[in-house]
């Protein structure tokens, strides 16, 4: 279930951005790392863990099979390999990842660390693949957790193991991105507080299906979804239709669009969506 | 490219429910004479009249109507708010005619708002006149008078109008128009600027389409809201190419006179001549893209055949 973590209104301002390396990532960052064939995952993971020691973070490595990265003991580093866990009979899945991140974030606070720093290999979390809905559901809930706990989470998606449509879905529900992908969705959806989500970029017919999937996951979990749209550059008719379809999909749903620009409001009206039977409210 | 396709009667003009009447006149005095006569006849029959004319003509009619009983039944369409694009007129008339369905007989007076139309504007207004016969083929009965100033308009524009109005007001007499012919609209050929920039596009390349349009628009000072509206229109047309027009297309952009023109060509075929000109319903599946395009652009030219594919030109008036 997609829940909102306590403390989400901690005053952190998040902006969607692409990063060239993992060096500048900071508390509250949730990065989708598209691991290409030329990327050295092991070296990058080592550097990421070493930065954790430098900044006083607790490090959680999920799906990294080698425990020899450990710096100075289990209290600073936790290394979990879902594949090995499953081999030992544990039911390890995306929910287990969320539980572990939540648990270790709380532990990191108790133990006096600055933050929890997580690197997760998603091909080992989902060894048999995942649907766009599963990816959206998991990543949006993880994002809410990242914001609430001030964690640093990097989700590594290996292009060889996820087809392009799934990578598009994954990128769209992370505020930050590392690595390039020929076809990336133009929008980013990420937590901005309790039941509130920022949407930035562009929703066009290339990305409307991905947007619809992400939005549907939010609406399925919360009767009212607030979307902060001040960084939304453009939404075309397909994107607006996705908003309408998701809002009207089940009784009781309501989507509140905040800070949409004049063009969005004009097009919404031109398309005839400013009517009571469509439970989408354009707030100031 | 193909959005909604609707079955329509083969010979819409034979349906007498819609009276589409040409009124060629020479100068303001004759305009007033014909228009006021039409309004007084409407008043005598308790019919309401919607007037969609340019601001100077509106002023003349308002002065003439002042203090008369007929003034009560006359509404002036805010043509400035409606914009320059004749592709937005049919929905306005459909809204008006819906009053007839509610038991109020209606009439209309419609004249092009352009004082000096470009060749493209003149062609598209003529096409709009032709489409009216199709759009109202099955509507409640109503009567539309279309004044054309023979003193100022190009003879070719008046001649084109004669061919698509079944009725004629001539010398104070309403009657059949012997020049009317039921035939496909004769579009003049689109001529491309020699100096244009091309961009092929396909799925996943809408961002490149927007970047290309933005670069061209920015060079000519188009920015802010007008640029965002053009980018949405560009997304819609390019998206139609990808979804319905063979999966790909080519974008060309250039400046012609005072307009930035973005042209999209693909191998699809738009079969419904009224595409984009009918207001979509809330629960309608698809068919919104070209509607939005018509509402956002200053002029839209669509040419589509099964043999040559579809070309859509978006005109945006440049600032200054």
TrEMBL record, chain B:
Domain Histidine kinase/HSP90-like ATPase residues, every copy: 204-314
Single GO term (MF): protein serine/threonine kinase activity
InterPro entries: Anti-sigma-factor_SerPK, HATPase_C_sf, HATPase_dom, MEDS_domain, RsbA-like_anti_sig
Name of the protein this chain belongs to: Anti-sigma regulatory factor
Entry keywords, A to Z: Kinase, Serine/threonine-protein kinase, Transferase
Domain MEDS: 19-166
């Amino acid at each position: 279930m997609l829940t909102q973590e306590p403390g989400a209104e901690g005053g952190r301002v998040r902006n969607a951005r692409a990063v060239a390396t993992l060096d500048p990532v900071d508390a509250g960052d949730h990065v989708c790392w598209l691991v290409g064939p030329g990327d050295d995952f092991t070296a990058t993971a080592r550097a990421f863990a070493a930065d954790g020691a430098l900044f006083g973070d607790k490090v959680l490595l999920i799906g990294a099979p080698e425990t020899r990265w450990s710096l100075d003991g289990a209290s600073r580093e936790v290394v979990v390999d879902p594949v090995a866990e499953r081999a030992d009979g544990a039911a390890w899945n995306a929910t287990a990842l969320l539980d572990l991140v939540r648990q270790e974030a709380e532990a990191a606070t108790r133990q006096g660390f600055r933050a929890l720093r997580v690197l997760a290999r998603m091909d080992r979390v989902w060894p048999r693949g995942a649907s766009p809905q599963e990816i959206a559901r998991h990543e949006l809930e993880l994002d809410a957790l990242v914001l609430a706990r001030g964690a640093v989470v990097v989700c590594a998606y290996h292009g060889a193991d996820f087809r392009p449509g799934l990578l598009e879905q994954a990128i769209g529900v992370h505020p930050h991105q590392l690595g390039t992908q020929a076809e990336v969705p133009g929008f980013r959806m990420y937590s901005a507080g309790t039941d509130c989500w920022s949407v930035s970029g562009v929703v066009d017919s290339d990305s409307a299906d991905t947007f619809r999937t992400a939005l549907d996951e939010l609406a399925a979990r919360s009767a009212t979804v607030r979307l902060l749209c001040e960084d939304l550059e453009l939404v075309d008719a397909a994107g607006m239709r996705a908003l309408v379809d998701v809002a009207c999909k089940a009784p009781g749903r309501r989507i509140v669009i905040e800070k949409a620009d004049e063009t969005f409001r004009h097009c919404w009206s031109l398309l005839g969506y400013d009517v009571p039977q469509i439970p989408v409210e354009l707030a100031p | 490219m193909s959005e909604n396709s609707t079955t329509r009667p083969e010979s819409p003009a034979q349906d007498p429910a819609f009276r589409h009447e040409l009124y060629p006149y020479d100068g303001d005095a004759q305009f007033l004479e014909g228009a006021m006569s039409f309004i007084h006849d409407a008043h005598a029959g308790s019919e309401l009249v919607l007037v969609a004319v340019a601001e100077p003509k509106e002023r003349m009619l308002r002065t003439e109507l002042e203090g008369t009983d007929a003034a009560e039944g006359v509404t002036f369409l805010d043509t400035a708010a409606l914009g320059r694009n004749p592709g937005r007129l049919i929905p306005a008339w459909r809204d008006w005619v819906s009053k007839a369905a509610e038991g109020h007989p209606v009439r209309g007076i419609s004249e092009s708002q352009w004082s000096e139309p470009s060749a493209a504007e003149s062609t598209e207004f003529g096409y709009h006149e032709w489409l009216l016969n199709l759009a109202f083929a099955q509507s409640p009965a109503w009567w539309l008078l279309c004044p054309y100033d023979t003193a100022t308009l190009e003879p070719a524009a008046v001649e084109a109008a004669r061919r698509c109005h079944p009725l004629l007001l001539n010398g104070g007499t309403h009657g059949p128009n012997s020049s009317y012919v039921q035939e496909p609209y004769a579009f003049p050929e689109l001529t491309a600027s020699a100096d244009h920039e091309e961009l092929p596009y396909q799925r996943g390349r809408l961002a490149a389409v927007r970047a290309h349009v933005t670069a061209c628009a920015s060079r000519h000072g188009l920015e802010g809201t007008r640029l965002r509206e053009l980018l949405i229109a560009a997304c819609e047309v390019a998206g139609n190419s990808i979804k319905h027009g063979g999966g790909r297309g080519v974008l060309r952009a250039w400046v012609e006179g005072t307009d930035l023109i973005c042209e999209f060509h693909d191998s699809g075929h738009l079969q419904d001549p009224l595409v984009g000109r009918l207001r979509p319903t809330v629960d309608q599946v698809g068919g919104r893209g070209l509607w939005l395009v018509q509402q956002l652009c200053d002029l839209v030219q669509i040419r589509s055949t099964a043999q040559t594919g579809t070309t859509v030109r978006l005109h945006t008036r440049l600032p200054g």
